[in-house]
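Lecture notes, structural biology module. Today: joint structure prediction for complexes of two components.
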Amino acid sequence: MVPTNYYIILSAILFGLGVFAFIFKRNIITIFMSIELMLNAVNLAFVAFSQALGKLDGQVFVLFVIVVAAAEAVVGLGIIILIARNRQTLNVERVDLLKL
Amino acid sequence: MPAHPMLEYLWIVPLLPLLGSAINGILGAKWPNKYVTLTAISSTGLSFLCALEAVREFLESGQALSRKEFFTWIASGNFRAGFDLQADRLTVVMMLVVTGVGWLIHIYAIGYMAHERGYYRFFSYLNLFMFFMLILVLAANYVLLFVGWEGVGLSSYLLIGFWFLKKSASDAGKKAFIVNRIGDFGFMLGMFLLFRTFGTLDFQTLFTKAGSWPAEPMGHFGTFTVACLLLFMGATGKSAQLPLYVWLPDAMEGPTPVSALIHAATMVTAGVYVVARSHVLFSHSSTAMLVVAMVGCATAFFAATIGLVQTDIKKVLAYSTVSQLGYMFLACGVGAFTAGIFHLMTHAFFKALLFLAAGSVIHAMGGEQEMPKMGGLGRKIKWTYATMFIATLAIAGIPPFAGFFSKDAILFATFQSGAGDRIRTLYVLGLLAAVLTAFYMFRLIFLTFHGKPRYDEHKVHVHESPWSMRGPLVVLAILSVAGGWFALPAFFQGPDYFANFLGPVFGAREAVEAGAEAAAHQLELILSGVAVLASLIGLAVAYRLYIKNPRKADDLARSMKPAYTTLLNKYYVDELYAAAVVRPLLWLSTNVFWKATDVAGIDGTVNGIAHGAAAIGDGLRHSQSGNTRSYAVWVVAGAIVVLAVIFFWPSASKIALGLVR
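The predicted structure, tokenised, for the full assembly:
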């Protein structure tokens, strides 16, 4: 049986990678993927704790996260396609219309 | 049905003109003049009839004071100001003068104002004035009196500025209002002092309480003296005495019926009325009495000198009014309140008549007011001439016209009231003012009605006024002749009806005088002779200068140029006030209150806060780069901060969680 620690450490590494990519990558799709990575890192932690504590709450929560992530992916990809159409680019540096 | 219905419902008397004012003010704009006239005349006429009935009931009931509390207006702690009306014999005189003369002037105004725009507005204001004036004379406490006092000031302002498109008229209205404010300031302080001292402002209680206090000797500035001087300050404003008289001559910008009613017959006598009403307080302070007498006498003389050279027919009458009001205060100041009120009444008759006749002259001349452009009108407008001549005889003090009796009573009382030199000075000045009065009044008559016409006879079609204007002239002329005959029997050692009538109001003081009068009957006859002689001198001089030898007046004016120009410019008092008061105030208002306080201080603070907010916003704006990645960094940073707090400062995170829950 793999100790819970290992799962948690793996989860933390995945999450850290996701954050790193979230900040430093320029391609919107990569950023989007890094968000998914973070979500799944969290999912891993949930499942690990669920198993360690012998409760099903964590696993139920994971199912919710997966559903929400799927919905988020739909919306997010829709936005990305629109940006790509309008700006002819996927570089976030060039998407700065939020400025006043 | 009460025994004295009209006394019981005394509020009807002032309410009728208020109704007339409201109806005309609200509906009059759409109405033809006929209905406006009907409303205005019937409301004041009914009010006059009700007043007559109230007076009849009052005299029949034989009480000294009939007092009714209708409702409480202000109640606060031990202070109570109610809508309380009272009738005593002083009120009776005032009420009849106000409603009677007021009604006549309303009738006159039908003809005079017939072709004016704003006909309804004029009558609405005029009725409003009647309402406030009646409140003033019927009030049973100082607070309600003050309501009437301010109300007549308001109506006066509205009516002086009736032709508000004319700059001089609207300026004159403002001047009247502002100058009166100065006096009212004193009046209010006087009321506060009285309330602080006696705990009430109700006439009956106040005078009963005050009556038991010791009188203050000359030169002693106690409560009575200070309170009386403050009240008198209000009176100098309203009654146009030195030093606050400047507004009255300017008030002649208003329509002539207004000058007659408000600025000659009724409102300006309110100050005299207040002094007479407060006679209990005034007679407790010889200092205040002396001040009243001196101010009155000085004004009587001073205004008469200005009246000598004025060329505007209404300005002459305006200064004459100021001068005659001075006589009334002189009478009150020497303790002869009866004589003061007597002169108030006769003055109301003949001065109203003079103004109405002057209005008739102006009407006949098509708006011309300058006497040098008149002349020889006597043959063309006979009714006006005859009535105005009667009024002139009355004001000049020629027996047996009304003014003779009242003015004689004042001069006699002044002579008698003290053997001191000071009082004699007052008498001499008063007598000189009588000479001047006779002179300027006959000058007015001679310049206007006699001599050769000095206007273009082809352009100006002199015409007599309609009957609605002539009628009041005739009635007032009769009153100007007969109004003084109450005092006639006194000359034949009989009773003085007017003094006896007011006896219950002014009390024992007058009774003593009545006793002394019998002893000094010989003296009175001599003094009357002197007074008549004084008037005749004035008449003779005017006759010589303006009829016998018309050039002489101009020669005289040229030979005494400095004196003449000083008088013509009214002693430069307006200029003095402008330099001493108006300009410094204007400077202060412009530079300190406007530019420093308002613009820099208040506006600066408000705008500064707005600018500050904008500047802060502008600074923070730059944190919004619009760059998506920078937002990502902020999100991560925020998450790290939250985590750090949870780890290193658990108590704070608990509080935060508690807030969320």
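Point to remember: Confidence is low (pLDDT under 50) at residues 508-512 of chain B.
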